[in-house]
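YM 10:42: Restriction endonuclease sequence, as discussed on the call
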Amino acid sequence: KTFKINPLLLPYLTYYLTGNLKPESIAKALIYPRVLSTSITTTFGTGLQKFITDTLVEICGGSGIQGIDIEFIDQTDGKKRYCQVKLGPNTINKDDVKTIKDHFQSAKNISRTNNIGIIHENLVVGIIYGEENEKNANLKKVEQEYEVYIGQDFWYRLTGDPKFYKKMILTISEASKNINMKRTVEKTIKSLALEIDEKKLFAV
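YM 10:58: structure's back
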């Protein structure tokens, strides 16, 4: 009842998806985009980033410097890092580039004022997941001035465990098995298909 139907586009999408214009097929064309929508991905991603960042703050200790998420000792060289944590290699937009750089500049200014001893090479961006070849253009702009640790490299530097990243992925995958919405989706499709059939939507 809350669907806003585009009568020009929906038949095309239905045929494209299923090859027919049956009520259940129309229902699938309406339901599937919402099940797999970017809004769900964004909500999950934002929640995951907050959870992991909050967890890292508990483990590593949050930073008292505005704009810095965590401070940690790099397990590869023993140096202290001041880190902004971001979700993925493609989640950095144009505005984020300026924000990241501004936060780091502010941290350096505070360091000089309070004699904290933060040097440029200790300011880093930690990307929760991803691979080196997945960095978008905006992240590469950040990388021109600051170190970017991504995916396995980030977690290895943080924990000292080269397998931690893969272990985390497996743990999240196992937990996701408990979130099976298949029956709910199928029930919704059948219910919507009955309503479409009753209304004779697109019936010739």
